[in-house]
Amino acid sequence: ENSQFIIKYNLLTSNIDNHITLSGYSPRSITYMWGGYSGVDLAVDEHGLWVLWGNTGNGSRLSASKIEGDVIVSDYNLATESMNSMGNAFIACGVIYCIDSYHSNPTTINFAYDTKTGNQWNPSIQFTNQYGYNSMVDYNPKEKLLYAWDRHNQLTYSLTWN
């Protein structure tokens, strides 16, 4: 807790096997708009394990790193709005998406960044915060669904890719 480290903990030996440092991460100073302990998001998509966080060295904007084994293999400093002004973010199929608000209904997915091509755009996709307090959104690559936690309700969103 309150650390810039992501720890790899071995459940069999009860030891810390390794750690990765998130450069530019200041614990609890940059979180998603709703607050809480939302400064770091771990995410998985078809391309592997990712970490999303607010980076003080990037104007409190979202940064993303791809983790393979015990090392960060790719870093991305994104030109998003400040993480404190963002509802949430998730990654699917190598594309990072940002949701404008955690409480507005409807809101929009207003930023996308393709980690393979470096292209960024505003997809302007409507997103529903059904219960008005969406504190978690994550993609499940096996089921091809978004999972969300919205005011004590677990929701799923079907996705359609063009």
TrEMBL record:
The keyword Lipid biosynthesis is assigned to this record: no
Record localization: Secreted
Keywords in alphabetical order? Secreted
A GO term from the CC aspect:
extracellular space
The Olfactomedin-like domain sits at 1-162
From its record, what is one biological process in GO terms?
A: signal transduction
Primary location class: secreted
Say yes or no: keyword Flavoprotein present.
no
Query: What is the name listed in the Swiss-Prot or TrEMBL entry for this protein?
Result: Olfactomedin-like domain-containing protein
Q: Which organism is it from?
A: Pocillopora damicornis (Cauliflower coral)
